[in-house]
Amino acid sequence: MVPSRPAANRPHVCLTAVLIVTSLALMDAYLVEQNPGPRRIGVCVTVLAGDACFLIVLRYVAVLAGSEVHTARRGYAMILWFFYIFILEIKVYFVYQNYKTQDVSADAEATDSDVSRRALTLLLSVCMPIVFITLAAIDHLEYLRPYKKREEIRSRLFWVVVDLLDVVDVQANLWELQREGLPLWVEGLMFFYCYILLLVLPCVSLSEISMQGVNIVPHKMMLYPILSLATINIITLLIRGGNLLIYGDVRVSGIMMGKNVIAIVVKSCSLVQYRKHQPAPPPADRGAEIHSPPEQKQNLFFIESDESFIFRQRHNT
Length: 317
Known about the structure:
- Pfam families: CECR6_TMEM121.
- Belongs to the TMEM121 family.
- Keywords: Membrane, Transmembrane, Transmembrane helix.
- The protein has one domain.
- The protein contains 10 helices and no strands.
- It has helices at residues 10-33, 39-66, 75-101, 107-136, 147-172, 184-212, 223-245, 254-276, 284-290, 294-316.
- 22% of the residues are buried.
- The model is unreliable at 284-292 and 295-313 (pLDDT under 50).
């Protein structure tokens, strides 16, 4: 008998769809506002056609992701996150290119442009973490009844949110106003490096929840901390240090640089403690006895029973 598929959590599906559609619609508003005149109609048609195709995909993937809310599986949630970031970052790239080609001539125009660029950074730093937390849905996992275990997983997801803000901050240095622009190859490398991190690393965190299953052990979820230590905490620290020392970018966030230094120390200590407290493997004989097949155990039982029966027969005679 084939088990029935669990029903989708409708509030979760609606909330996820509303968050994704709202953030994409706000990015569409940026694209339309940046193209005045006759080009605006063409941009509107292109944007609406792309959104219609995405809504078709969202209709099915969001429902499938909503059916995984109460389980350990997060496969469709990873697919939905991948599609969401893929579409969102394409829109961000075109907005960034439009800002790059703008010629700021007056102070009022410069002020308005600065406000809109910082608003774009604020939009990304709010929408991405909220969508990720909604897809993770830790509070809906029915089998995580112990409060301590749930809080440990929630603290790990908090690190993912902080890393998302770190990546968005690095990416925002490209479109927010600055005195001297970076070389073209540096800008392209920074943007697409952040693009890959936003696509992959949250999916790694969701996959750790899926791989653990019902018997989830938070201290064994070490794949994401190792990857984030190398790709975010170390490399973004080098990126900010290079922009500050080589190109004189005074807008580099000192707070995020301090966060990376603290994260390097904390995650390194966690890795050392994890290696120290790894349980020793069981003895070979005991493991063979435990993992012996049931047929072998049954044969041994019968042999022992036959020997005891023969011994009792001899004793009685």
